[in-house]
Amino acid sequence: MQTHGWGRTRTYGAGALALMAALTGCSSASGTPAAPPVKSSAPPGAPAASSSASAAPQGTGWAKWGLQPLPQAPAAPADKPIKLARTGTVPVFSEVPTKDKVVFITIDDGAEKDPKFVEMMNDLKVPISMFLTRDIVKDDYGYFKPLQALGNHIQNHTVDHPVMSKIPAERQKTEVCDDQAALTQQYGKAPLLFRPPYGDGAHTPTLNTSVQQCGPRAIVLWRESMQIHDMQYQAADKKLRPGDIILAHFRGPKDLKGETMTQMFGELLSRIQEQGFAVARLEDYIQAPTG
Ligand SMILES: [Zn+2]
């Protein structure tokens, strides 16, 4: 019987490792050359306070974290650009069609459970979506509850983070359905969205069917992947575009060359702020199935 521990007992074949590196999702940041820092982040005491209170409506703690406040996100659109159906094939998307100058932050797995990050989110009120893997979070489901209480949604990211295309349909279904059940029980709400580890198998009929059978109504990929100091971009010009979905991870010093979760997240916010984008809540742009 294989033990499905994550990061300790699980081993991947060479093919899987190559796939992981190619897709960048959930591979160790330390194993991936980070793009050169665009510029150093704002030092503590940077003139965040020079912005009026109305310019920082998402929270007043920016200076405390050495950050410039992000622009305010526009109100959630009444007519959601993504509309999900209750049955049938689930769509796969890595960006949201919108002209709003917003991006969306998703944070995966759940390995690092740094109390300072909860404090940071309480201060900044930046919306995030959390794609959680049961066997990575089950030792401390409670860590994510204060983050959920801030209005952030919890979404499905399998039971133990396999390469989905390498496992049979039956086990794919277990991976999605059992994470769905655990997260629903723990957090009181069924995940609406699913993200396959490494983005693998997202476009296969087998995975689509597995997801349909378990409850999530869309498969969500990403456009940018946060490393330590900057993002890996899919666009050649290395610029954010309206509606981009950004992948980050709950990671700590072991995976971030000594940087903490809050330092990494601060760098991410700085890269977004430098490009003049606001961060909006992904679920605010998605119409859940009705009826
Ligand atoms: Zn992952």
TrEMBL record:
The keyword Transmembrane does not apply. Pfam families: Polysacc_deac_1. Residues 101-280 form the NodB homology domain. Keywords: Signal. InterPro entries: Glyco_hydro/deAcase_b/a-brl (IPR011330), NODB_dom (IPR002509), Polysacc_deacetylase_ArnD (IPR050248). Residues 29-75 are annotated as: Disordered. GO terms for molecular function: hydrolase activity, acting on carbon-nitrogen (but not peptide) bonds. It comes from the Bacteria. It comes from Kitasatospora atroaurantiaca. This is Peptidoglycan/xylan/chitin deacetylase (PgdA/CDA1 family). Residues 37-57 have a biased composition (Low complexity). The lineage of its organism: Bacteria, Bacillati, Actinomycetota, Actinomycetes, Kitasatosporales. Residues 1-29 form the signal peptide. GO terms for biological process: carbohydrate metabolic process.
